[in-house]
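W.,

You were right to be curious about this one. When I first looked at the sequence I had no strong expectations either way, so I just let the prediction run and decided to look at it fresh. Below is the sequence, 145 residues in total, followed by the output.
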Amino acid sequence: MERRAKIINKKKSTTNTGTRQATKEAKQKVAEHLEYMENPHITDIIALIQPLYDFDVRDLIEKELKRKARYIMSTFKDSNKVRIYFSDNDGVYINVDKTQDLVELSKVNRQLSVKYSGLNAAIKKVQGKIRKIVDKFRKNKHRRA
């Protein structure tokens, strides 16, 4: 429990107002350029935002190690190829097969529900766009015939 408190406190203390401001500026800069770029490549976005950030190498190493650790934890799956471990967003991984803690399971469930809702909304948006394009194509095809 003591380690968890340290992780939470560390997370809060590393929040940097300057970084938030740079992120707002970066988002605004990207938004301005998106008007002229239909399908931008990641390298285009990086070129736009790189001047706004001053990186700390130690932070970058820590972030990359956390990313790799999260990836590794996501690869542990049961016989049905369903993940076993899920983060509770405080850096603690919950083994959903073994835990009896309803609070922890509720945290994981809430997190997954939010992701599920967001993904479903995005899927519906893309499917709607596909239908719209296909319908338009069909109408144009009938007009030519």
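Here's what jumped out at me. Confidence is low (pLDDT under 50) at residues 1-16. And, maybe more interesting for your project: Residues 56-145 form one domain.

Coffee later to discuss?

I.
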